[in-house]
Amino acid sequence: MTLYETITAAVREFEQNGYQSSERLAYWTAKIREAAERDLVPENQLVKTLRDTLGQKFNQVASTDALLKKHVGVDRFTIDRIKPKLRAELDRRIMASADLIKMNREESINKTIQRFQGWATSIPAGGSTQVETVDVKKHIRKTMAQLPFAERRVLIDQGHKLLASINEIVAVDGGAIAMRWHSHYRQAGYDYREDHKERDGHVYAVRGNWAIEKGLMKAGPDGYTDDLTRPAEEPFCRCNYQPLYGLRQLPSDMLTDKGREALKAGAQNSAASKVTISVRAK
User: Fold this and answer.
1) Tens of pLDDT, residues 33-54
2) 212, exposed or middle or buried, with CB in 10 Å at 0-12, 13-18, 19+?
3) Which of residues 119, 148, 174 is at a domain's end?
4) pTM score, two decimals?
5) Are 187 and 107 found together in one domain?
């Protein structure tokens, strides 16, 4: 029998006879668990779906052209070098998704059984004519009925986490010196976190980056990226980082005197180069 048919039969028995023995309760508890597990998508098919869905997302965002477009300042050689890291992150996300979905499934089955047992043991011996069977069955099945939606949310959330992890790996290996936080709090219907909204537009230094080591920059008032949770780290977070690779992209309060001098010298050299090119052209 399906889960719905099994619950229907169990509710009918307790409606007619009431709670008379722990043996009958255990019998129907086992039947409900078996039916619930039987109705679920098989584990091997689940992993295949996860691999296909996240793999498609990976191919969209982790191609060399896509990464070069997003991470201006990172060369093709660096991206090719870190491709194995990105692939390992995909595999890690697939396994994490599978584990989370399996855990959610077990919790849903246990919740269904708890609801059934709670209702069944409340019916007096001899049964009851006051049972609204439609409402009872709906209440017992509620968690399992919501499971497909919950599993889709897991896939969407893991997709955001995969994207955030890929961008962070490329940024750090590509020499990013800071990250600008972007929140999607303006997106209609998005249940954003208030503290994430407050981070929007703030710039966080990457600890130990080359510009800090050379004394060209320092952490600003927002601190370092490792002082706070990462984008998409918390459940259903859609925030993301914009990597910053050059001193000119930093807020002025993150530059040291040496950094300002370096920028000034760079601007003067650039201007001199333009003059030289113009004279040669004439």
Assistant:
1) 999 999 988 888 888 988 999 9
2) buried
3) 174
4) 0.79
5) no
